Amino acid sequence: MKSLLFLVLISICWAEPHPDNSSLEHERIIHIQENGPRLLVVAEQAKIFSHRGGNVTLPCKFYHEHTSTAGSGTHKIRVKWTKLTSDYLKEVDVFVAMGHHRKSYGNYQGRVFLRESSENDASLIITNIILEDYGRYKCEVIEGLEDDTAVVALNLEGVVFPYSPRLGRYNLNFHEAQRACLDQDSVIASFDQLYDAWRSGLDWCNAGWLSDGSVQYPITKPREPCGGKNTVPGVRNYGFWDKDKSRYDVFCFTSNFNGRFYYLIHPTKLTYDEAVQACMKDGAQIAKVGQIFAAWKLLGYDRCDAGWLADGSVRYPISRPRKRCSPNEAAVRFVGFPDKKHKLYGVYCFRAYN
């Protein structure tokens, strides 16, 4: 009996795993394989192009791996669209759908809905696009414990332009820069927008804020005051600065507009206040800086007459360089911020379409 008990104790000790024996530890891992196919979310296009005032569809479909079915039927499908901020630090809610429930958020209310061309279609339609809609969107589909995501970028046709106020160079903190762009019918530009503008020939030596909080500037013709004449062309990056205390210019972005931009034919030159009243008398408003850039870049507007704009600056757009009118390059020429009460110029007006 004692010998039998001794053999049992030996068997128990032999079966007990040793804590330092890694091979025995691995043998204790239990692998659980989930039943059913894995949920997949796919965007057929990674980048979509549109313009302000247009409608666009951001593609997104969901499947189960190795099957063509949209869902298992055991759980309700939840579709959530969010927008990634330019610094990628957070997401902004855009639209959520689950069953018959639908909800849109913020500026997207009344402008977004699902296409639902099939049972696995989670594509988002955005109507009456505004400048703030530009950016990257995440489509997330959730079914029970399974979920997957896809990201789609919405790009807008438009123009990037540098801006500084009447106070002069380097007088805007980040928040003031945002407001300055909004006041001129535009939004603060993203790095991607500035990069595309640089590739199209934008050259500007003053550093300006971008939407991610960085400060950068584009150089196509290296020269001594702008980083040195022996440096390579590119978008120069100052890095990220204090949004409240640091002061720079800003790069703004605007797109096409729903209205008419024009130089007002008037018998005399005008002071600033007279220019404002003249546009109002013509059923319009004095034009903004973003509107003159959009008309120049997107519509090819060309006029050699300097005219007042809403911010008190005087500019004129040249699409066909010629003698006395920007002979070397097509550009929106900047005259300056003249004395509003005494200097006389023409005026550019903008009449919105209803």
UniProtKB/TrEMBL annotation:
- Supply the Gene3D superfamilies for this chain: Immunoglobulins, Mannose-Binding Protein A, subunit A
Which PROSITE patterns does this UniProt record tie to the protein?
Answer: IG_LIKE (PS50835), LINK_1 (PS01241), LINK_2 (PS50963)
- Indicate the secretion signal residues: 1-15
Which keywords accompany this UniProt record?
Answer: Disulfide bond, Extracellular matrix, Glycoprotein, Hyaluronic acid, Immunoglobulin domain, Repeat, Secreted, Signal
Q: Which GO terms describe its cellular component?
A: extracellular space; perineuronal net; synapse
Compartment(s) where it occurs, according to its Swiss-Prot or TrEMBL record: Secreted, Extracellular space, Extracellular matrix
- Disulphide connectivity of cysteines: 205-226, 304-325
Which InterPro entries does the UniProt entry name for this protein?
C-type_lectin-like/link_sf, CTDL_fold, Hyaluronan_bind_Proteoglycan, Ig-like_dom, Ig-like_dom_sf, Ig-like_fold, Ig_sub, Ig_V-set
Give residue ranges for domain Ig-like: 37-155
Where is it mainly found?
A: secreted
UniProt-listed GO biological process terms = cell adhesion; central nervous system development; glial cell differentiation; positive regulation of neuroblast proliferation; skeletal system development
**Residue intervals of the Link domain:** 159-254, 259-351
UniProt GO molecular function: hyaluronic acid binding
Q: Which Pfam families does the entry mention?
A: V-set, Xlink
Tell me which family the UniProt entry assigns to this protein: Belongs to the HAPLN family.
Report the protein's function: Stabilizes the aggregates of proteoglycan monomers with hyaluronic acid in the extracellular cartilage matrix.
UniProt protein name: Hyaluronan and proteoglycan link protein 1
Species assigned in the record = Charadrius vociferus
